[in-house]
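Page 42, continued from yesterday. The earlier attempt failed because a stray header line got pasted into the input along with the sequence. Redoing it now with the clean sequence only.
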Amino acid sequence: MTLAEKKPLIEVKDLKEYFMINTETLGLVGESGCGKTTVGRTILHLYKPTGGEIRYDGRLIKTKSDIKEFRKKATMVFQDPYSSLNPRMTVADIIGEPLDVHKLYASKQERQERILELMGYVGLNSEHAARYAHEFSGGQRQRIGIARSLAVNPDFIVCDEPVSALDVSIQAQVINMFDELQDKLGLTYLFIAHDLLVVRHISDRIAVMYLGKMVELAPAAEIYDRPLHPYSKSLLSAVPVPDPKVARANQRIALTGDIPSPLNAPSGCPFRTRCKYATDQCAESMPEFKEVSTDHFVACHRLAEIN
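This time it went through. Structure tokens are written below.
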């Protein structure tokens, strides 16, 4: 057979394969009292929504049956690792409680194996299983809470300030663990925090919230490099910078006054009572939350004038 007569067994040309990347961390930031925790708890129906809709994978979550099924795919890590764990339960029973509630094992042995697997995910040893929460440090307690949140094999986890009660040295370990678990298990996080350095490290996108309203949403790098809303600019101006020269050059944008009560919110834009750019228009109507550049959304009447 001549070279011209030879035919390839397999021929590939312009081959393309697209993979869906459906894991993400959305950081939700804002001052204390702005409603961050309420958002997280209401999404999971720990608080009953007063209005609006919550959908998961396109399906409306409304009935008790819907909520029960939703909680097999959506869980929560709470802020305080001291009060969120039952002191009368062993670590094994704390982690295994979601397995019991949703009947996710066929035998006691399967239950025990799953608990030990979850403990391994968060760096706890099997010998810890029979101990009680008060015997552990804050960082270890939060690991127990994280293992519990993973028990139902969720897709989505609300992380409500999960490192704010921990020492700074432990915070980094826990944040890195969140990253590792996301890569390993394909998780999506809503990461609620007030520490903007923590949020920057873990988030793909960041949403800035003020008095129950979203004022800015953008990719994390975009928010830090080019904040557009006056409130976002003020928050980011307070973030410590490790370079002394850069820190001296940065100008702190201080806000006057306190956040108004949600029970008596200002008319129009909720930020107007603390905004130096506010006009009569800001008092008359809530600005539209609109896309001003690719994936960058802002709610501000005077956006073009102040940027």
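Notes: The first helix runs from residue 36 to 43.
Reminder to self: strip header lines before submitting.
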